[in-house]
Amino acid sequence: MNTTDMTLDDVKRVLAQAVAAEAGVPAADLATDQPFTSYGLDSMAALAVGMEIEDACGLSDLPVDLLWDHPTVDSLSEALWNLMNTVPAPATADGRR
């Protein structure tokens, strides 16, 4: 699937699968409104999830604290979808944004 065609539900599914894999639980058993910490995810697991969602969602250089600022699948998937659908500001004459 082209990442520009991903819906919010697609992003949520990818994220839930990545979190579930790191947490060692089936994705179907993951409560998307529960904090990542309730599944035992530490900073190393958060980094692994971050790398997975960067690849799956076509994003790069996600803020390191994104998972802590959005501590559930529900809130993070919305933040990721918004990042994926943000149109960068046009460059100025000197090349800056």
From TrEMBL:
Residues 6-84 form the Carrier domain. Transmembrane segments: none annotated. Coiled coil: none annotated. Keywords: Phosphopantetheine, Phosphoprotein. SUPFAM superfamilies: ACP-like. SMART domains: PKS_PP, PKS_PP_betabranch. The keyword Phosphoprotein applies. Pfam families: PP-binding. This is Acyl carrier protein.
